[in-house]
Amino acid sequence: MTVTLADVAARARVSPATVSRVLNGNYPVAESTRERVLRAVDELDYVLNGPASSLAAATSDLVGVLVHDIADPFFGVMASAAQSSIGEGGSGRGGGEKLAVVCNTGGSPERELTYLTLLQRQRAAAVILMGGSLEDPEHLAATTGKLAKLAEAGTRVVLCGRPPVTGDANAAALVFDNRGGARRLTEHLLELGHRHIGYAAGPADRTTTRHRLEGHRAALTAAGIAEGPTVHGPYDRQAGYRATAELLARDPDLTAVVAANDTVALGVCAALRERGLSIPGDVSVAGFDDLPFSVDAVPSLTTVHLPLHEAGTRAGRLAMGTEDPPAGGLARVPAELVVRGSTGRPRG
Amino acid sequence: MTVTLADVAARARVSPATVSRVLNGNYPVAESTRERVLRAVDELDYVLNGPASSLAAATSDLVGVLVHDIADPFFGVMASAAQSSIGEGGSGRGGGEKLAVVCNTGGSPERELTYLTLLQRQRAAAVILMGGSLEDPEHLAATTGKLAKLAEAGTRVVLCGRPPVTGDANAAALVFDNRGGARRLTEHLLELGHRHIGYAAGPADRTTTRHRLEGHRAALTAAGIAEGPTVHGPYDRQAGYRATAELLARDPDLTAVVAANDTVALGVCAALRERGLSIPGDVSVAGFDDLPFSVDAVPSLTTVHLPLHEAGTRAGRLAMGTEDPPAGGLARVPAELVVRGSTGRPRG
DNA sequence: GCCTCGATAGAAAGCGCTTTCCATCGGCGA
DNA sequence: TCGCCGATGGAAAGCGCTTTCTATCGAGGC
After folding, report:
1. Based on C-alpha coordinates, what's the Rg of chain A?
2. d(CA A156, CA A126)
3. Closest CA to B311 of B290, B297, B294, B293
4. Locate the HTH lacI-type domain: which residues (chains A, B) (predicted)?
5. Which of A69, A207, A254, A340 has the most CB atoms in a 10 Å sphere around its CB?
6. pTM over 0.70
7. Which pLDDT score, from 0 to 100, does residue A1 have?
8. Strand B156-160 to strand B99-104: parallel, antiparallel, or no bridges (unpaired)?
9. How many of the other CB atoms lie within 10 Å of CB of B5?
10. Which of A71, A87, A117 sits opposite B76 (nearest CB)?
């Protein structure tokens, strides 16, 4: 049979209560007793029973990190940063670290809810939702309701790169300045002299897509330049590849393409090259996010740097309660234009 | 207060036992009763208490997936595939899915053990270890011991891309044919006429590194060609970049570089380009793994395709018990040479 | 020298669920 | 008609831990 706390207590000749106190360290125990207990733990190779502990204490040391797609570096970087800052954190219940668990929603609202329920069931200590959300009101209501329940049950809720919904007051939120970043990026293209700019946007019904598009349009409007063609698609290379054909078809005079993110930009580049168009000689290309590979692309990508690592770290700290939530529950994360080799002056 | 199973029972005018049976569906319950219970669950918005359930049932629906680095697509792809196949799986305890949780070890043996203990504590249903392991005997012994304990406690153990240790009989293992893949890759370079081949290898003390290097050497030996310089480093772009300088210094006549994986190969390419060397005109470059981006690299990377997605899916199924473990507990996963644009005949 | 207080340790009551017996009940074969 | 069986549902005993409420023991304060 498995070793239980009672076995340890018997071996150390103390009561179970004392063993529990030694393990959780939140009650004074005489040094000699503590040592005796720890020795017994070691000798018996005792491992705390998590469920029992969570049941009695009405909380667990699980922290859920929900991402749209683990295989996407955007989430990979943030999740990994969050997980580190959670691991390093203070000693939770059960004499140790929290278990940060990454859950892949695939961007599907249903899976998101499923995971939230699962985490609620586990009495998770905290939940971090990464990435923008769908704007469908029904989905929004369902998720918000679920989050409210989680918060009510004592689970900390952190949004990272996801705008808070009104009335979502009990969640700390870190939001990227997508609008501002996109605006600066388009301004950069305008300054270079581009007048026909295509936009290979992300999925149509997501907050992130909308915000980036709004920034782009704001720049155009301010400069009095007409908006070029826009095509929506997922956040993958294929989408950029396909979008390029359509953008070019809709405006053959295109001299620049702004992509939903760096991955999409890669697809755009591939499609342009395949048509014999040089970058940035014939067409300039810009990405977004500044994912690790974008500096290695040929030419290196002009993009908008998002401090994903810091944001992830901060989200982790907020989840641990190591960092105080920002005033108003919402902190803006800056987005900085990074000009590299893929953008230049248009010909002529 | 939170709604408990007893509340549901009261509302449905049945005993708690019956509610539990409805929820777990492993005992006959009359249709009318079942409906009444489900209605009550709905009306009260009841959420099962996971810890309590796990405690009573002595097992949980957690499946741990340990990876070296989530931000690395190699793991991202496998983990995401595993998580999907686990999610889709049969109904576990607690009337639903299993919770696949991805844990980032950062390649550190300590963190790996920490996570295994955490999972053991949670009475995880299964654990999947992805990626090669350190070859340090002490670490190996510790991990093997821990895995044995997990298996003993009823947790399924699956190794994916990690060679089993002797005596690790109760773990199902999926191993990539790193040796064969590496061998075929080097053979390809030899056939093209390369005689001076440098190797930008992975970390020195890991199984994966050793196997790939062995395959590489086997090809050279069989062809009677002298081994070129080898440099070890981590699996990142920087490593490839740095290694290139050293390889070139050690053999200025180098006409080809084999990299530890595709990411490293990208660094190698960057370094070569910076020195004004063309690819594959002056130097051929080869990667390994066939990560998603390698087809988009310029030039596209010659590499060894590893079916990461399928391997991850299979690992997930093994963890769920949906798929029978392979005979002998070990299945080889093929590695296929993919020739693209980054390798060609050496000049002259 | 007696009482109080601080520091420790133990007793025991759950935490919310699962599951092993049992009890009940209607129907059917003899 | 009686007894037995299959199908359901209830009672209750834990699962292994946490935590309040007490108990004990010295050390000072008066």
Report:
1. 25
2. 4
3. B290
4. 3-57
5. A254
6. yes
7. 66
8. unpaired
9. 18
10. A71
Provide the 3-class DSSP secondary structure of residue A139.
helix
Q: Would you state the pLDDT for residue B26?
A: 82
Chain A: give the shortest CA distance to residue B221, in Å: 34
* B58 CA → C21 C1’, Å: 20
Residue with nearest Cα to nucleotide C9 C1': A18
Query: pLDDT per residue over A150-197, tens digit each?
Result: 998 889 999 999 998 866 667 899 999 999 999 999 999 999 999 999
- Out of B51, B76, B270, closest to residue A51 by CB: B51
Q: What sign does the CA torsion over A202, A207, A212, A215 have?
A: positive
Nearest nucleotide by C1' position to the A32 CA atom = C8
Interface test with A, best of B24, B48, B99 (most A CBs within 10 A): B99
**Protein-contacted positions of strand D (CB under 7 Å):** 7-12, 14-20
- Residue A103 token pair: 């859950």
Q: Which pLDDT score is estimated for A92?
A: 43
Per-residue confidence (pLDDT) for residue A201, from 0 to 100: 98
Closest by CA to A135, choosing from A172, A175, A107, A104, is A107
Rounded to whole angstroms, the Cα distance separating B227 from B206 reads: 20
> Rounded to whole angstroms, how far apart are CA atoms A339 and A294?
11
Joined tokens for residue A180: 């501002």
DSSP-derived secondary structure letter, A206? B
The reply to whether A55 Cβ lies less than 7 angstroms from strand C is yes
| Residues A115 and B99 sit within 8 Å (Cβ to Cβ) | yes
* Pairwise CA distance, residues A117 & B348, whole Å: 65
CB contact under 8 A, B48 and A119: no
- Report the residue from B51, B79, B106 with minimal CB separation from A55: B51
Task: Tell the burial category of A199 from Cβ atoms under 10 Å away from its Cβ (0-12, 13-18, 19+).
Answer: buried
Average pLDDT, chain A: 92
- Cβ-contact A342, A301 below 8 angstroms: yes
Helix (H, G, I), strand (E, B) or coil at A107: coil
Report the alpha-carbon distance of residue B224 to residue A239 in Å, rounded.
47
**Residues of chain A (11-40) having a beta carbon less than 7 angstroms from strand D:** 16-17, 19-21, 23-24, 26-27
Q: Which domains does chain A have, with CATH numbers?
A: 5-47 (1.10.260.40), 57-176+308-333 (3.40.50.2300), 178-306 (3.40.50.2300)
Chain A residues with CB under 8 Å of B71 CB are 73, 76-77, 79-80, 292
Extract the tokens encoding A288. 């977004």
Whether the per-residue pLDDT at A317 is higher than 90: the answer is: yes
**Which residues contact residue A193 at a Cβ distance below 8 angstroms, ignoring those fewer than 6 apart?**
A345, A346
**Among B216, B166, B151, B218, which residue's Cα sits nearest to residue B330?**
B166
Q: Is the CB of A313 under 7 A from strand D?
A: no
Distance from CA of B309 to the nearest CA of A (A): 11
